[in-house]
Amino acid sequence: QHMPFSTAGVRKFSTPTITMALPYIDNDLELPGMQDAVMGMIEAEMASFNPKLEDYVAHLPEIKADAFSSTVLGSRIAALEKNPDTPAEPFDVSRYDLPGPAEDQVMDPNAWKACIDNASAQLSHQQTRITNLELMTQYGGQLWASHVEQLQFMRDVLQAELDALRNRVEVLNWERQKEQTDAAHQLYELELKWGELVTKNFQLSSLLETLNAQQPKPGAAADE
């Protein structure tokens, strides 16, 4: 029988407790009621966490969601916060229009100059787009093929690293299983040896008690 253990007078240290486990040979979790006992211990440990789980990030600064948003995006987010059903505003394409001067500015040279400048800017923009499309048509296929090759190379490198890690995990798990299996055999042999020694000690104790009982008492020997 085990002697009752008391924690009275035991000094408590702040160092974490190291739990030794042999998952490849331990089957205590399969015992009746052990699963509930383990879950109860886990819940009790979680209840002692400080800070609590629901506010463990309370000490961190608030996330600035608008740090990288534009004016248009910011106004859209603000509108959705007020009313999630707010429809999105259509894109303003008025800058692509080529309007002429207003009726009351038909005779104004400055108004015509502003319209011509707008038309020139639109023409320059369209010419740039055409140039980009021609370059894409001429070199885009080769560029994308090269990009795909780079992506495939990166995928192969990452896949090789992943395979190496998986192999290391397999080897580590195999080594742990072997170590724990060997330890289980050693523990079993030590347990048998311990049982044999305990049995021998018990037999010796019984024999000594028998011999002591058979020894004549000092008073009885003097009477004889």
Overall description:
With 224 residues, this protein is mostly helical. The chain is built from 4 helices and no strands. The two termini are 45 Å apart.
Figure out the total of helices: 4
Class derived from helix and strand content: mainly alpha
Q: What would the average pLDDT be, to the nearest integer?
A: 81
Number of strands: 0
Roughly how many Å is the radius of gyration? 43 Å
Order of SSEs: HHHH
Helix percentage:
55-70%
Write the layout of secondary structure elements.
Blueprint: H1 34-47, H2 71-82, H3 109-214, H4 218-223
Features:
elongated, 62% helix, mainly alpha, 4 helices
Quick structural summary:
By secondary structure, the protein is an all-alpha fold.
